[in-house]
Design brief:
The structure is a homodimer of 193-residue chains. Chain A has 10 helices and no strands. Chain A is mainly alpha-helical. The structure holds a DNA duplex (30 and 30 nucleotides).
Chain lengths: 193, 193
DNA sequence: CTATTCATTGAATGTGTGTTCAATCAATAT
DNA sequence: ATATTGATTGAACACACATTCAATGAATAG
């Protein structure tokens, strides 16, 4: 028998889940609060007992969302190429086994290039720039001779856009076959002579 | 001295340009007709003398947009790997020299995964599936031994998501360094033993 | 058992936005 | 020169949607 508090906690997550799904498919502006409420199975008014506004709900999701990329960047960076292999592997793993985390990646990927999200969310997203630290790592790998020559920022962009784009596509179409993570790393890998 | 008809034609394109830019940055729902009108420098009401509705305006853009991928698929396909090299080269070339076409790619890329666009536009986008023909070409390349082993659909997804994601990012941030097209093709290229 | 808290609803409110329209003025045609 | 067409505006309209709120009833506390 679930206590009142447990029920509330459970519904809190149900809302976040439903909202995440809708925000990915329709975007922030096109997602109606009533859509989310309906997906969870509650009245629209009740949703405002859990989140004070649509904006706050979205921003809460983004707060969770930045943890995904952050965790990835916390992987062992001593060997740059190994880091990218592991990063790609992890993200694609989420896509198959942890749809919530996978959807978070998709959400972050969209938020990165959208001008139509709440200001608070925009600040959060822009505050965590994944490209600069990635470019630094790529530079290191280039010196070691494991990563191909070329503008590090451009290489970082290529790597992350592939990962994010694939994650986004697979979240929306889960039946699509999942690429292998080392294919993507081949964008960075130095080719043998 | 421009005639009345020329003026009208010119403004028609100005509207399409401004709308394209805003739709990419903000998405369909978050882009207000008044935003577009303001960007062009006309009253909101006047815009409806050029396009009967916001929906029609968006769908017109999508109609132009599908021509981009269509043209790419019309490139010579006799040598699969050469085709992908040329396709990647062309798309990235547009990003640098023809921002209208480049933005079209970004628009199509977004539309592909959005549930929040007009039905007419959705039909158009879904009607032209780029993945199936690409997968067929990949299969051919695999038989020839120029393309790596692996699920052809998954390889097609990887290739196009990289291209589209990069195009989208560069359209929004034109100052970002542009990757080299052959990096992306390395996702498909069979590695020497 | 009674009182209180609080989840829940459905209707009401207000704002924002797509669209329409009557009126104006400039360009073109006759 | 006059009439007609068409570009242009600003205000008006209607509708959709985020948010509020008073009322209800069930769970919990005392």
């Amino acid at each position: 028998m679930p206590t009142r508090k447990e029920q509330k906690e459970k519904r809190y997550w149900e809302i976040l889940n439903a909202a995440l799904d809708l925000f990915i498919r329709k975007g922030y502006a096109a997602t109606k609060v009533s859509d989310i409420a309906q997906a969870v199975g509650m009245s629209t008014g009740l949703l405002f007992h859990y989140f004070e506004s649509k904006e706050k709900l979205y921003t809460t999701l983004i707060e969770f969302g930045i943890q995904g990329p952050q965790q990835v960047m916390e992987l062992d960076q001593s060997d740059p190429l190994a880091f990218f292999e592991e990063a790609a592997r992890q993200v694609l793993l989420y896509v198959t086994i942890d749809s919530f985390t996978a959807k978070m990646f998709a959400l972050m990927s969209q938020a990165q290039y959208s001008d139509a999200i709440p200001d608070a969310a925009k600040s959060l997203v822009r505050g965590f720039n994944i490209f600069e630290p990635t470019a630094a790592l790529i530079r290191k790998g280039q010196q070691q001779g494991t990563i191909r020559a070329g503008d590090p920022l451009a290489l970082a962009l290529t790597f992350w856009m592939s990962i994010m784009g694939i994650a986004e596509a697979l979240v929306v179409y889960p039946d699509f076959p999942c690429p292998q993570s080392d294919w993507i790393v081949d964008v960075l890998r130095r080719r043998e002579a």
